[in-house]
Specification:
One of its GO terms (biological process) is methylation. This protein has 607 residues and is α/β, with parallel strands linked by helices. The protein is built from 20 helices and 17 strands. It starts with 5 loop residues before the first helix and ends in an 11-residue tail after the last strand.
Length: 607
């Protein structure tokens, strides 16, 4: 065989450079020329037209795999990919674990039927969920806070049912959200101003919030402009599209309920919890729901309750409830709050605010004197499908000081500083932060739209210590940090201490959200983690379900894993490219970049 000439080498290098530049331009232009709220090219596209796409070459990044030892897999890789068919159009808004028909077969007691009930293996769909006809890319933030294209969630019932409460209005081909709510018809901003007179919202002390029974999440939407991020949840019930509207607005939300199962969040996580006319029976079940809020509320955190039964003496007629009923409900709430060592800071009009004590030792002695029952579980974060109990979760022995946000984003989290997370030291945390800073910089060179506002709702499927989210932190986006229930280290509490939000989840099941929730999905070593645990095909179809048309995917994993993933997604209407690790082609870890094609229900071809 003739020895390759230097000219041949230069030719191969030029081809590699061309491929790198080509994918950069591919992302930049594809992300720009997409269907915006009114079917027109958006501002990003106009900017490209004016300036042209600046697609610089990324050093040491090639889109060909250079990992040795993969010859045996060539036949498998080149074999014909399985083609996944679209599901029937009746599944446009399918939520596998909150399916309405299945829900009705479960008991209604304590909202059990509104909890997660996933389909058995033989009932799983193995097709791709379509978008509705006319689907368009949501408006960029902050316009999306106030407007949602009608085609994306074509449900008008709330515009009638909640008309006088200023939740939502239908105007032409969009829904408008004036910012009102059942408890704040004059707007969320004014309501939040009332809370801020008691709660330190302005100085970064309060960063993470939990909104129980969130409606269309206007409270969370308006908190975001004050640098507070809320995890909002509500059941898929008679207000069927409420969480869907929240997500279309670009507000963090999941389908969920306070029922019989513990919330999928770590202990001592949130700076503030909130219920505004959320219809949760706080005084029932011996205060069990308040005890669950106490578990997820950090020492020093605040609980806000507005609406019944607060100030019942004035409002009982308007609420159409008896004085006796409301008085007893408030008595039970006050009694439980005392057991939990919550101090009432304010009761004004229909709003009451409590603060959880920071003095855990003093509280514990008072609780013991009251003969309260403490939870026996040795791990307060072991919550996945665990039954809620009438017991008090002991506060963490080592609490530490929270820095105000954004300083706490990069400060050493108290759980790590105290050695409370097995296997994670201060040095480990700092190395992780450095590693992800490098990874994210590489991502931004590949996809120039990453921090432009093009991607608002982002998911990290295997979030670790939250360093990916920390390094793309921006007022233009938020990240749902998922810590898999089978992860080796329980790190979700650390993520909250950084001022980020997240949730526990098992990726062998569907996520608690509507289709087309996320603009970008990031996955690090997830498929290696779930190898032999469940079917890769099921995980990829779930990713496709929750990803918007023209949304992007970044999958980082070992090359042999990515080859199998790439083969599957080739049959899912995803455009893909494999790229090398930023440290060069000899690193066996690679990155698979993908963009989901635009297609809608009953469409036989992509558009």
């Amino acid at each position: 065989m003739a020895k390759p000439s230097s000219a041949d080498g230069r030719t191969r290098s030029h081809v590699q450079i061309f491929i790198v530049v080509g994918l950069c331009c591919f992302f930049y232009i594809l992300g720009a020329w997409q269907r915006s709220g009114f079917g027109k090219g958006d501002s990003i596209a106009l900017e490209i037209t004016k300036k042209g796409a600046d697609c610089n070459v990324v050093p040491n990044l090639s889109f060909d795999s250079h990992h040795g030892g993969e010859v045996s897999k060539i036949g498998e890789f080149e074999s014909k990919s399985k083609v996944f068919e679209p599901c029937d159009s009746r599944y446009i808004d399918y939520t596998p674990c909150q399916d309405q028909q299945r829900a009705m077969t479960f008991p209604r007691e304590n909202m059990n039927y509104r909890e997660r009930h996933c389909p058995p293996e033989e009932e799983k769909l193995h097709c791709m969920i379509p978008a509705p006809k006319g689907y368009v890319t949501p408006f960029p933030w902050p316009k999306s806070r106030d407007y949602v294209p009608y085609a994306n969630a074509p449900y008008k019932s709330l515009t009638v049912e909640k008309a006088i409460q200023n939740w939502i209005q239908y105007e032409g081909n969009v829904f408008r959200f004036p910012g009102g709510g059942t408890q704040f018809p004059q707007g969320a901003d004014r309501y939040i101003d009332q809370l801020a007179s008691v709660i330190p919202i302005k100085d970064g002390t309060v960063r993470t919030a939990l909104d129980t029974g969130c409606g269309v999440a206007s409270w969370g939407a308006y908190l975001w402009s004050r640098n507070v991020i809320a995890m909002s949840f509500a059941p898929r019930d008679s207000h069927e599209a409420q969480v869907q509207f929240a997500l279309e607005r670009g507000v963090p939300a999941v389908i969920g309920v306070l029922g019989t199962i513990k919330l999928p969040y770590p202990s001592a996580a949130f700076d503030m919890a909130h219920c505004s006319r959320c219809l949760i029976p706080w005084g029932a079940n011996d205060g069990m729901y308040m005890m669950e809020v106490d578990r997820v509320l950090r020492p020093g955190g605040y609980w806000v309750l507005s609406g019944p039964p607060i100030n019942w003496k004035v409002n009982y007629k308007a609420w159409q409830r008896s004085k006796e009923d409301l008085e007893e409900e408030q008595r039970k709430i006050e009694e439980t709050a005392k057991l939990l060592c919550w101090e009432k800071k304010s009761e004004n009009s229909e709003i009451a605010i409590w603060q959880k004590t920071v003095d855990t030792e003093s509280c514990r002695s008072r609780q013991e004197d009251s003969s309260v029952k403490f939870c026996e579980s040795t791990d307060a974060n072991d919550v996945w499908y665990k039954k809620m109990e009438v017991c008090i979760t002991p506060s963490p022995k080592v609490y530490g000081d929270y820095k105000p946000f954004p300083e706490r984003l990069y400060a050493i989290p108290p759980r790590i500083a105290s050695g409370s997370v097995p296997g994670v030291s201060v040095e480990t945390y700092q190395e992780d932060s450095k590693k992800w800073k490098k990874h994210v910089n590489a991502y931004k060179k590949i996809n120039r739209l990453l921090d432009t506002g093009r991607y608002r709702n982002i998911m990290d499927m295997n979030a670790g210590l939250g360093s990916f989210a920390a390094d793309i932190q921006s007022s233009k986006l938020w990240v749902m940090n998922v810590v898999p229930t089978i992860a080796e280290k329980s790190t979700l509490g650390v993520i909250y201490e950084r001022g980020l939000i997240g949730i526990y989840h098992d990726w062998c099941e569907a996520f608690s959200t509507y289709p087309r929730t996320y603009d970008l999905i990031h996955s690090d070593s997830l498929f290696s983690l779930y190898k032999d645990k469940c079917d890769t095909e099921d995980i990829l179809l779930e990713m496709d379900r929750i990803l918007r048309p023209e949304g992007a995917v970044i999958i980082r994993d070992e090359v042999d894993v990515l080859i199998k993933v790439k083969k599957l997604v080739e049959g899912m209407r995803w455009d893909t490219k494999m790229v090398d690790h930023e440290d060069g082609p000899l690193v066996p870890e690679k990155v698979l970049i993908a963009v989901k094609q635009y297609w809608v229900a009953n469409a036989t071809s992509t558009q």
